[in-house]
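subagent[fold] <- orchestrator: predict structure for attached chain, return tokens only, no commentary.
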Amino acid sequence: MKANRFVLFILVFLFLGVIYVSASCPPPQGEVDNLCFDPAHMELFDYQNGDYSSITDWSLVSWNLIPNTRIPEVPAQDLRYFMLSDGQRKAMTAQQIVVHFDKIDDLAHDVKPEEAQKAIKEKYRVVVELSGKKPKNQIISLKNGILKTGFGVQDRATLSSGRYTGGAFEISEEGSLIFIPAKTQKSIDIPASDRLIVDVSKGAILFRGNSFSKGRFVFNEGRTFILGFETVQLNRVLITSGNPDGLKLYFDGQWHEEEHYISMDTKKGDLYVDFTNGDHLEFLKGNVFVPNLEEKDRLVLSPQYPTTLSVISQRHGKDKYSNIPLVPEMRMSGEVIVENGRNLFVVRGGRLLTGINKESQRSGSVPLALVFLEKSIKVLTDEVGNYVTLPGDYENPFYECLSCTIDLTQNSRLQRDAKVTFLRSAKGIRLTDQSTAFGEAGSLELIAAARGLEKLTPALRKSTTDIILLSPKDFEKRCGQDADGCAGVGRGTIYLPKDDFARFSPEWVIEVVSHELGHNVEPDVDAVWEEAARLPNSALPYGKDLGEKTVGKSPLQTKGIDYRNAATWKGGGDEARYGCTRAYGCNNKQEDFATHIECAYTGSSCWYNLLNPEVNDWHEIHRKKFTIQCGHGYIPKDTCKKMGIQ
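subagent[fold] -> orchestrator:
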């Protein structure tokens, strides 16, 4: 058996030797072998089976005769790229592609993408994802050391700069070059001529001393942007761009003569922001702009509606009088919402509103000063959720605000031990939010309600004891549909809906609450209303065939009470008629009295025409009603004076 194996081995060896001798080049003198390339007889060369190593002059080669499978045997420096067919180009090896990068128009389609990917990695030590199915419109080239996309946004990256070594590129359908730095790469310096996206989702990286640690950043010929509708983490600040064109980034912490940008200076701790609707900033622990922020704290800035300009400046050092560290100061101009722990500070429509942020899962707040420039208001907060609202130029260290009292000593600086106490009432009226678990006078709506109450006269406020905020479902159950508010008859209680805090301006509260308070007062005005009943075209008795019987469904009707609250006259409209300020007031005497008080607080746009004999709304009974209400102190004295009622 062993002898047979030995004989077989000898035969195979002799056979291979014959083949080697027959294929050896050059052939014996005087002979011609078509397996060897002979310049004198090059037309005889067998391109299918010949010995390509025997070719000494590639200029004599007929490139169209070379099979695709033999292209890898052509020395890279001798390859004539422009003489190759499509099939021959796709047969090129990575080593051949390296030599001919500058001639290849499309690495994704003209050559084999897998080999092109190997070639790029071999020469520039960076991965460019070219494998996989690529649409025909995607053109990718690498000429003069510059990787380019020839479609869509047409990005470019200078691989020859060595700035991308060790990283990887992905190519989007929009033509973007998306660079993912290597995990070991600590910093990056993008050439000013390049246009690309840098994705740092897999690891933080430094750019000019700034920490990019989450999201994707656009570098466009020396400028840096955040992509539209994307969130990034930069210098321990989460930034969301609400603009489809993205958000520009500067790194000097200064104002720039353009719109929609963020400028950071990490050395000075300064931040300058030009916001627009949809932008969002959330400060994280470890940022240099608000350095006293803890893990549990929540500090978020969100602009509303028109562009908002915000300035945040970190004041370093300590107060020279008290030696207490100074808190950061945020100076803001425009419409913005600030979430600090569970507190909300809202500048909207020229008003500053405050409330509780129920959505916050983190309850900690950050000691700082918010300065709202248009309102000349300063809001000071401490680390446990207390705050005080002060005039921007305040000097008195003891200041009482609507919802709290604060003891500010040591040169009027807010300190960690500042004494802040939230009050549960406003001018003698209890404020309760039954739609929230907090149940205190800190919600946005109740603060607005309290500010509205301050504008009402003491006599009017005495007619009620409580203002209760209800959830939309509970409010509809108690007050019916389409109501702005309702009074608990005989109990001195007013209910308001918590459905949309934007409606809770002090002005809205004045109108609604003054109307509801008007239900509860019991002045001796029967004589006036009896006189009104005797006037020509009088609407009295109230509610008789004036309009639709009810608006929505009243809980009183479920108890068998014939309750009228028609909102319009029977023929339509809600203008003043028959000595009533509007149709709703003519439902009954209480409503008429309430709507007159509401009209007085609404302003001259409501009561002026009622007292002017030259207009259609005028009726002599209006002056008598307003006179009685002024006499009882239900209308402010300055309003009565403007009405001509002394």
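orchestrator: received. Logging for downstream: The chain has a mean pLDDT of 78. The longest helix spans residues 2-23.
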